Amino acid sequence: MELHQLRYFCAVASTGSFTKAAEQEGVAQPTLSQQVRRLEQSLGAELFARQGRAVRLTHAGTTFLPSAERILAESKRAAAEVRHLETDTRGRLRVGVIPTVLPYLIAPRLPDFTRQFPDIEILLTEDLTVNLVAQLQTCDLDLIVVSLPLAHRDIVCSALLKDPLVLVTPRGHRLASPLPGKHVDLSHERLMLLKQGHCFRDDMLTACKHSRTETTPIFESNHFGTIFPLVASGAGVTIAPAMAAAFAEGCTVLPLPKPQYRQVGYARIKSSGTFKPLAAFTKWLRSIARSA
After folding, report:
1. Can you give the pTM of this predicted structure?
2. Residue 202 pLDDT
3. What is the rounded distance in angstroms from the CA atom of residue 136 to the CA atom of residue 76?
């Protein structure tokens, strides 16, 4: 049973003629008759009684007609809803963001997006990059905001901003003022890092190597929201992205002697480019990145 067969059946029922139904549907009359016959074969019952040029519904046809009309109406409604999503800026958008970006770049500014686009419902997920990429590829997420680059053929990536890496120390610490030279000695410091799995952990370790420092972290966490208060208390030092370090209360934040950056951007599946809520959100992301 196919939709065009149901459409042809309903056309014959409404016009009372195979010829008129074929004209209405824009197909040859033999083609329409053949498709109606195949529909009858799939149902195992004759839908029309044919008496010369006169056509009338059988008992089976009369019983089947309301269901056929309902199926066609639901099909039109479903197609209209999909077109509505493609042409209107409304609907549900599922966004995944890594923990070193969501609390600092997205969350404080999200009310502004909601005011601009009240008909878009944002569903946020915070997770590690590897998990977000997997959810994007299975279409459980529409968009992810992560550190770039990503190497996946079915994913389109766009850069948003370069986020400098900075040194975060307690106030009054020996490193709490800019030091001359191209390197900073962290070898005798109590270093606090993000746990394994965080993409920014690799950036932190790279920064330590550039500082010619052997790293043996004394504390690891999933969030800078835990690390910063410990640094402020004098428990150690850390290397953080500048957007996160802006929230490091009670700490001293300094640029690294040798500037280093992470690239923050977003990624989507190639086929999602026409989804209006996604386009609106990425445009908004670019605007807040310019002002960050």
Report:
1. 0.71
2. 83
3. 29
Residue 45, classed as helix, strand or coil, is coil
Contact (CB, 8 A) for 8 and 36: yes
Same-domain check for residues 275 and 253: no
Total number of domains constituting the chain: 3
CA distance 287 to 166: 24
CATH of the domain at 142: 3.40.190.10
pLDDT computed for residue 94 by the predictor: 95
pLDDT in tens, 241-284: 999 999 999 999 999 888 889 999 999 998 887 788 999 999 99
Which amino acid, 144? Answer: I
DSSP per position, 167-178: EEEETT-TTSS-
**Helices of type H across 88-163:** 110-116, 129-137
What is the domain range of residue 30?
3-87
- Mean pLDDT of the chain, nearest integer: 90
Q: State how far the alpha carbon of 231 is from the alpha carbons of 201, 240, 251, 286, in Å.
A: 17, 12, 7, 32
- Rounded CA gap, 236 and 143, in Å? 36
Q: Is the pLDDT of residue 111 over 60?
A: yes
3-state SS string for 231-265: HHCCCCEEEEEHHHHCCCCCEEEEECCCCCEEEEE
